[in-house]
What we know:
Elements: H1 9-35, E1 39-40, E2 45-46, E3 51-52, E4 60-62, E5 67-68, E6 73-74, E7 77-78, E8 83-84, E9 87-89, E10 94-95, E11 100-101, E12 106-107, E13 111-113, E14 118-119, E15 128-131, E16 136-139, E17 143-144, E18 150-151
Parallel strand pairs: 1-4, 2-5, 3-6, 4-9, 5-10, 6-11, 9-12, 10-13, 11-14, 13-15
Antiparallel strand pairs: 7-8, 15-16, 17-18
Organism: Bowmanella dokdonensis
Protein name: Acyltransferase
Pfam families: Hexapep_2
Amino acid sequence: MRVNMSKASQPKMVSLRNKVRNTLVEINLFILRKIFKITIGVDTIVSLKAFLDKTNPKGLSIGSHSYIAAEAMVLTHDYINKKHCRTTIGDNVFLGARCIVLPGVTIVSNVVVAAGAVVTKDVLQSNVIVAGNPAEIVSSDLKIGRHGQKMH
């Protein structure tokens, strides 16, 4: 059976899909904050497909107005050395898809972590983009705004 969708109904479907997705993201944030006790600031978005290490949830802090994309990993424990570490993500930080933030790393505010980057050490300089494995600063002196968006 073929369903003919008029162009008028397509925006309604997109709107409904966005509402459902946004509701699921809010439920996910509620679970991360209230059940796992992860510190997450206001207006932060965590993709449903992002992995936040729940082995040491109190060791993870994410600032306000940040965005964690799909399949990004933020780790808080070192399995080999049996250590729990404090991992901190600042305000206005964007973690790109499939990037990895290793345990014990601090990323200050206003930083963009490129997709696929592996952050092995602290990023202590604001208004930069880091990329690569291991992640290094590839661009600096930028204006980074809400959710890590580059301002012009």
